[in-house]
Amino acid sequence: MANYxxxxxNDLKVRxxxxxxxxxxxxxxxxTLKPVIERNEEKYEKVALLESFVEPERIITFRVPxxxxxGKVQVNRGxxxxxxxxxxPYKGGLRFHPSVNQSILKFLGLEQILKNSLTGLPMGGGKxxxxxxxxxxxxxxxxxFCQSFMTELSKHVGADTDVPAxxxxxxxxxxxxxxxxxxxxxxxxxxVLTGKGRSFGGSLIRPEATGFGAxxxxxxxxxxxxxxxxxxxxxxxxxxxxAWGTALKVTELGGKVVTISGxxxxxxxxxxxxTPEKIGYLLEMRASCRDKVQDxxxxxxxxxxxxxxxxxxxxxxxxxCATQNEVRLEDAKNIVANGTKFYVEVSNMPxxxxxxxxxxxxxVVVAPSKAxxxxxxxxxxxxxxxxxMHYSWTAEEVDAKLQQIMKGIYEACYNAAKEYATExxxxxxxxxxxxxxxxxxxxAQGAV
Length: 448
Prior knowledge:
The protein is α/β, with parallel strands linked by helices. It is built from 17 helices and twelve strands. About 50% of the residues are buried.
């Protein structure tokens, strides 16, 4: 690694030793940027560009008091990490989950900078959320929490400042309550949130966008290797919106998804999750808040494997769609042993660093999440454009724009890897392509 990058990374490891997720993301990014930094080391070091790049512009933390249905006051913690605004307003989702902490939000925010840059749209990187758990809460409890959360967050966001969206635990219901409170407080109807309902400024294709975009990226990747998605089998983890969108588009293009998973285990459907009833049932399962993928097995009479992950199934393409670090070294060994040639990260940072290294050592093509799952934020960017124009595109128009954006992202990743002597390394390519645009903007804007 270039000396400058190594010094910055070592400093991060000392300063943020208590933030493992953030350090994992920073290590992967700074390591793969080595060829770029070597070419520009003196220029970057002179203005402390890397130190600025890995440090958020600001982190906002606040308490969120709300009243449950028994009349008792509850208090959660709220966060917004506004990481980098060099190429546009901060953009990134809100996550409501008990695991939320500053380390996770910083890793997500750092990844978001590069992801947003890759889309070609003018969006900076940010992330936020709370350790609030919407599962098991009534609609009124969720509404009261969202209103309290937005009462503070509204002071720091806006259509040209910071545009949050949904993430884990923040769906259409939560976005609606958050948007309503923002409108109430600010007395303005703007595109301050994306992922909104269609009746108040949302974009068609947004719920499906992450899964659709991941499949479009996969199609372009397969072409490079002279392969086609038709007839390919896919192992997918998770069963939320992302897995649903993935199954929908894979089926449409002639592939077959044979697994989904949850906290309780995974199911294997040899015939494929490929009918409207089966694919639609994923949304019913998520809406039920039971968090049990066994429900699918019970309904459709397929095998269920309690407490296991779907990576033991022999498929052509593995697509983790659940959460960070869900694929560890032992899972990577299973995937390689099954002869899987393509590993496509859909959830954010789903793979541990040692698992990534194992894939590379054994010739598995790895497509990185910051490129693969950029379809979600890309359509959020399109939603921002539609809101600014007070206009709405058709589903076909949005889908066509999404497909073109994902094609451009794959080409940018592939070409950047090739130019910087790491041809075929899509992880390095994604980091390099995303970073160069942000670095140029930071250099142009000076020490800010």
